[in-house]
Please model this.
Amino acid sequence: MAKGDAKAGSGRALRGRAGRMKNGRGSGRASTGMVRLWGRHAVEAALMNPDRRHTKLWATREGVDSLSGELPSDFPVEWAQAADLARLVARDAPHQGLVLECEPLEDVYLSDVLDADPARPVLVLDQVTDPHNVGALMRTAAAFNAAAVVTQDRHAPPESGTLAKSASGALEVVPWVRVVNLARALEELAEAGYWRIGLAGEAEMTLAEALPAGPVALVLGAEGEGMRHNIMQHCDAIARLPISDAMESLNVSNAGAVALYAVAMR
Model:
């Protein structure tokens, strides 16, 4: 990724103020089928991702100056004021002077990640629909070197600016496998030698007691509702985090962070 002379704008396709831009405020999915990402970490990671195809960057000069590298001289930049960029993103979204329009990432298949290092866990999310939670879980998955995050194609948030901002760049790093049938995906994980542990507050066994020495797939259920019965039946063990009785449960992203840490500390 590169950043040229922002003030001179040499060789760039400068297109005036952002006030003339189409496609108004939203979650980060443009009406053209493109994805809008915002915020320095999400935008910078997307620019550095060789698998991401970019269309245009709307930016303030301060936003471009905050990037770690240099933009190619022919990269399509449209200079804007911060107030103009605010019209392109979700309400009150902290765009930090950067809004990037790009194509969605290519599909990743479960078979593509099962050949990874077996010491790296797989995180499976059963109908976790909040993009902030999924993004936060991706960030934690990247931090603890998870091999992939697996969700359903439906009943899961789409790729979006909101999710990418919460992921803080991890969307470009952690493979996101979207499957039609989550139960079948768990069967594939078992066939590949993964021990599938579902997290549930009512379980008798703690996660530390359930962890094996080999490959692990952690399964987390939806916010509030937990894992569906069919998904629970496709787990090899059901375990709980040993939290205090003073608190009934943890947010799913917090629970995922604790569980991934426990796997890393085996």
Remarks:
- The first strand starts at residue 35 and ends at 38.
- Residues 1-31 have pLDDT under 50 and may be disordered.
- DSSP finds ten helices and eleven strands in the chain.
- The longest helix spans residues 131-143.
